Amino acid sequence: MSTYSTPTTTLETEFTTPTPTRAMLQRAYRLMRTAAELARIYEENKAVTAKYVHATARGHEAIQLAAAFHLRPTDYAAPYYRDDAMLLGFGLTPYELMLQLMAKRDDPFSGGRTYYSHPSLRRAGFPVIPHQSSATGMQAIPATGMAHAIKYLEGQHLLPDAEEQPVVLCSIGDGAMTEGEVAEALQMAVLHQLPIIYLVQDNDWGISATGREMRAMDAFEFAAGFKGLHRLQFDGADFLASHAGMEEAFDYARRTRGPVLVHAKCPLLGHHTSGVRREWYRGDNLAAHTLNDPLPRFHQQLLELGYSEEMLAELGEEAKATVEADYQRALAAPAPDPATYTEHEFAPPAITEEAGERSPAGADKVLMVDAALHAVDDILQEFPEALFYGQDVGGELGGVFREAALLAKKYGDARVFNTPIQEAYIVGSTAGMSAVGAKAIVEIQFADYIWPSLNQLVEELSKSCYLSNGKFPVQSLIRVPVGAYGGGGPYHSGSIESTLLTIRGIKVVYPSNAADMKGLLRAAFLDPNPVVLLEHKGLYWSKVPGTEDAKTLEPATGYVIPLGKAAVAQEADSGKLRNGETCVVITYGMGVHWAKTASKQFPGQVEVLDLRTLNPLDYDAVEAAVRRHGKALVLTEEPLMNSFAESLAGRIQRTCFRNLDAPVFTLGAANLPAIALNVELEKQMLPSAEKVGVALAELLGY
């Protein structure tokens, strides 16, 4: 059984902070008692309060309040799920916290959608608290993205409150510090010297695992490896020491605009959560931790500073009365209207109509890769809050496909820059960027490398709008080169759209030609939601036989296409349509070009519907095309089994059954785990114009 001992205060510089004011000390004591009363009333009424899982701050109140007292309304905060005392320190009321505890309609954070002490708040006079997940390490990346946005916007003179020297507070438990994503965040904070404080509340427990089981060193020792990360360590159960320590941390971050890690030891006095009760596994350890309860320690310190027992008792009674009254109010508060359950999946789109010139007079033809480059260039010129980063997109190279060529030289390393091989940071940081007001365009070098970022994409980006009740949609444009193009092999040829399309709350766009690339990229940037833009490498240069149509006249600057609108890439002959001799191929990306090439064998008989956006899907266009022709082929480059294409085919069978003259055909890649390196093996695995031709012959002859 582990034991708890009071840590030795270790500081790299001497504290110079004066003693807190009398009013501050009284407020701290009242709020510490309030946090303790919250834990008490929750435990006494656990039949009600434990309906939904919660955790409380018991044992952590001192460090949480000390941190809260140093935040300004111009700052940003990323609390973790045990930080209800910190939220009280910000100025939130017990009633507001209880509304979330009981999942009530007027929960100010999520409207009853997410757990207790999972805040998301935009309110005058308070630090901004963007939505985050359950904060077991993942929050470090979006929080660092906030600091990155502050640093960038300051440098561009775009931050209205720059004179306040805003900083980010990222609160985290010691168990979460072992997450690999935390190391990614620390790396970038040090590399770019970002104004962020990582507050590690170390109680030496995970759920039932102790520190000695989970880590080879504590967070203070771990952070020593990040040169340029200012470190502080002190007793987080002592309010006076914590207040002085956090003063040093905030002063350093505001003054130097660099990162700080605070390691504060705390006892864990409550349950890990209401669902994992302390009596199941703590034993004598709980008694050892109780010796360091911050509340009696602070009580004694205040007596020594001249406060009377009567005054402290009065503050305690005030806290108790407030909590009990707020509990009764929260019990009586209304539940959410069930009819609102679908609201805020997405923020309303910025672009709803096609605009600008698609084929301006005198325009030259442009390759798809250059259309993308020009679209990003136009955005960077027009929107100073926009920036572009990813692996190898900065510096001299400008992307492995030259899709960012010369942008870093044109706009500077602060706007267009390389990142480490950190896909989680590349994607997750955009959530923090968005919350502060920067607008990130990022790139994953190859689709096959996107998997380390899915944690951030799912937990931090896709859920933010819905779980914050619409307060924090994440504007994020994630460019992903995708698809096979002749000998790319197993790690540079993958198609990933079906995996992405299982993630609700993100949009997925897939252009098939240069004009659509330019118009859709701009719409994706302007959309207030997370958008993944899939860019087929085999279409970039129109070098693959049959892809010549991917090269188009270049649209004018500002041309935009609304997301969720399909386009007819090739029409069928009206006479053959009337005679029932036609079919439609429903596809996207490379499939458009396979279908157009194959259809030359069947002149006038094949319509090609280019979906362009896979989510939101223009299903009205799909239904209309199927009803026009009565025969449909859904074509994809992905392995077919359990794919988006099969799902779409099944939906067509259900909604268009009476209009079909044949089963809905599907064609995709072989159901294999990877694309083989050898080009002949690759050809065997993938669809092709020849294979599409065989399928069309069967379908038209059905």
UniProtKB/TrEMBL annotation:
InterPro entries the UniProt entry points to: DH_E1, THDP-binding, Transketo_C/PFOR_II, Transketolase-like_Pyr-bd, Transketolase_C
Record-annotated Transketolase-like pyrimidine-binding domain positions: 366-542
Cofactor(s), by name: thiamine diphosphate
Matching Pfam families: E1_dh, Transket_pyr, Transketolase_C
Molecular function terms from GO: branched-chain 2-oxo acid dehydrogenase activity
Top-level taxon of origin: Bacteria
Keywords: Oxidoreductase, Thiamine pyrophosphate
Keyword Transmembrane belongs to the record: no
GO biological process: branched-chain amino acid catabolic process; response to nutrient
Gene source species: Hymenobacter taeanensis
Protein name according to UniProt: 3-methyl-2-oxobutanoate dehydrogenase (2-methylpropanoyl-transferring)
Role of this protein: E1 component of the 2-oxoglutarate dehydrogenase (OGDH) complex which catalyzes the decarboxylation of 2-oxoglutarate, the first step in the conversion of 2-oxoglutarate to succinyl-CoA and CO(2).
EC number: 1.2.4.4
